[in-house]
Amino acid sequence: MAATMRAPRIQALWLLPWLLVVFLTKFASTSPLKTIPKLAVHHRINLENPSTSTNLNPYNPEDHKTYYYDQTLDHFNYQPQSYATFRQRYVVNEKNWGGSSVAAPIFAYLGEESDLEGDVEAIGFLRDNAARFNALQVYIEHRFYGKSVPFGTRENAMRNATLRGYFNSAQALADYAEVLLYLKKHFSTQNSPVIVLGGSYGGMLATWFRLKYSHIALGAFASSAPVLYFDHITPSNAYYSVVTKDFLDASRSCHNTIKRSWGDIDRAAATSNGLSWLSKKFNTCNPLKDGSELKDYLDTLYCTAAQYDRPPRYPVTVVCDGIDGASQNSDNLDRIFAGIVAFRGYKSCYNLSEFFPSETLQGWRWQTCSEIVLPVGRGDQDTMFQADPFDMKTYSDSCKQDFGVTPRPHWITTYYGGLNIREVLKRFGSNIIFSNGLHDPYSSGGVLENISNSIVALVTQQGSHCLDLMPASQNDPEWLVRQKNEEVEIIHNWILQYYQDLFQSY
User: Fold this and answer.
1) How much is the average pLDDT of 4-17?
2) For this structure, is 465 an active site residue?
3) CA angle, 371 as apex, 82 and 91 as ends, to 5°?
4) Do residues 262 and 270 touch, judged by C-beta distance below 8 A?
5) Catalytic residue among 200, 224, 358, 435
6) How far apart are CA 182 and CA 174, in angstroms?
7) Residue 68 near residue 89, CB atoms below 8 Å
8) pTM to 2 decimals?
9) Annotated catalytic residue within 299, 388, 402, 440
10) In what order do the strands lie in the sheet with 455-460?
11) What is the pLDDT of residues 160-204, one digit of tens each?
12) Residue 359 in contact with residue 154, Cβ under 8 Å?
């Protein structure tokens, strides 16, 4: 397939680069409401200095060709404006594909709330296993992210309330269906089985795609997908309870220092010169305007360390080693700052808005204010954080202020299910892998027990967020190697059974 291939309805749209400054646009929340922890597959900070020297199958950009599909704006309406199209980016790797003559499978990675470029490099599971399956690799970008923004810039798209209404998971799933059916037609491979894969929010999408588009996808591999963190199926404080447990397991003294630090920050911020003193103590790039800025930064740092607590670095241990290893004459906040330095390294100053790209923050803020309502909160004294219970009214008021809409907290379970998932899916669902690592705070909202013989839960005690999607490395611990092998074997059995059924039909 030549790199100049285009879908039949391609438009020429000029897309400006997305804004790189986090939370400096008018679409960032201006309310005091704390943002929901991000569901990104990989984390930007963890990839600042990526080492591919130990990867068993390093990423080769020459193997991956980028194309654009002229995608339908609105799949569920027939008004004239619904037929408008926009360019949706996808990437294909044909290196190991066995071809249509043998109905070789298609592995399709469903993009989540981020630019596709980072995913193609960071997600190693497809290219690590493509040769074994002779599989065609496909990566599809989620609408409104990266270069798949309808009609111009992300800033304009997010400002337009009508256009923004097309930014939802159901439209994204229909996008993936159109692209996959187009590719099967283009490659003349109608009999090739499709396995959809995704991590985090993308893992939710993979699960929902298998349930909604079972005529297209033979199976789904959903890594770290908190499909049960909706409609209060999972306790609100579950996410922060796991973060707390991760730190407590690493070091009780570290946990206790963090728990005491919130009050120390509040007391310092309340003094006449306290914010200036805190700014100097934590070497912030910009003067603090409120103590909550520093607390939100630390909250995100600890959650990030826990969520992406991956070998060989294990960020939770790094943070705690920094806190516990501070000099004996250090006060509590000196120790907290030592944890920041251990995790982030020595810097001329520390940017309190450094953790996620602005496009992820903008897009995810909209998605969680419309349909992806994750009721994450904290009770009093049940985590190492200050109490911050989830309050739907406060949440709704914040979303109404930012976007002029009220969230729909019951829509996900209405449209995709989740309530009584075991009883429901064992009757009509099949061929889904739910993988979760218990160091991942979002595992608390994941499927942790087998539902049937073909809807299986693979759980690892030491695993973290989407770790099994990362490239295979010479340094992978034995338990991770076993987990990946088990996932591959399950997918192999799905495809083998498919071929047996296919041949019997001829």
Assistant:
1) 29
2) yes
3) 60
4) no
5) 200
6) 12
7) yes
8) 0.91
9) 440
10) 65-72, 85-93, 136-140, 106-110, 194-199, 219-223, 432-437, 455-460
11) 999 999 999 999 999 999 999 999 999 999 999 999 999 999 999
12) yes
